[in-house]
Amino acid sequence: MTRKKRRLYFVSxxxxxxxxxxxxxxxxxxxxxxxxxxxxxxxxxxxxxxxRFRLGGLVxxxxxxxxxxxxxxxxxxxxxTVPVVYTGILPDLFREGQGVVTEGHLDAGGTFSxxxxxxxxxxxxxxxxxxxxxxxxxxxxxxxDGPPAGAPAAAQGAVRAYQ
Length: 163
Fold this sequence. Notes:
Blueprint: H1 3-29, H2 39-44, E1 53-59, E2 65-67, E3 70-76, E4 81-87, E5 99-106, E6 112-119, E7 125-127, H3 128-137, E8 160-162
Parallel strand pairs: 4-6, 7-8
Antiparallel strand pairs: 1-3, 1-5, 2-3, 3-4, 5-6
Keywords: Cell membrane, Cytochrome c-type biogenesis, Heme, Iron, Membrane, Metal-binding, Signal-anchor, Transmembrane, Transmembrane helix
Subcellular location: Cell membrane; Membrane
Organism: Roseospira visakhapatnamensis
């Protein structure tokens, strides 16, 4: 076998190994590439108890219950809901009807234990993923018509998603 042929075999074998390693890594990541799960995503694809992930949606109207440093509220995407418990200081912009992304894990009872709570920054914008989730559920439409009556305050009016 000539040196040129041997080199070609080694390069081909190296590229094949690199391709196989890349395919294995991407396959192992699977659903963990999502920025966050909506309550409907959790209903379709449950996560393991204790697995850390992000949960995003709207804070359900009338669901916020503060007891000292502990806050209980419900995150909804207008189809499904997930109860959340958080101990700590909430962002100033946190309130009912607003978009929120929480980081944490599910406990055995199905309650999401949040380590961090991130609120949207103003009345005009919300995270693109939350807006897309609202659009998918039919509770948010851009334009003059807007969402149907009874939709949360964050979905009313001309709300735009940022990229």
